[in-house]
Amino acid sequence: VMQWGETIWGLAVAYDAWPLSAWHTPSGDINRYYVGDVVTYGGVSATMPSNGVSKTIQYGDTVWEFATSHGYSVNRCTVPSGNINVYYPGDVVTCR
Description:
Blueprint: H1 8-15, E1 23-24, E2 40-41, E3 44-45, E4 53-56, H2 63-69, E5 77-78, E6 92-95
Antiparallel strand pairs: 1-2, 2-3, 4-6, 5-6
């Protein structure tokens, strides 16, 4: 189920699921999808990896950029402050 900030490209990277033409959306166009759409790869629904990814934030990093580059929505990420909009260099962001 597509979440805000997710992209087909990001999902393909996260799952190593290539080619992009094997992804399917309700619209039939992988460039047109919406939050809440169920997308599939080769007819199989994708699920997020259970182990997730983590990174120590450095100056200039954003949680959004980190999350989307790994195929996650920011609402699947946590930071020490508990507020995804408040983080500092040295904090660890985890997306699951």
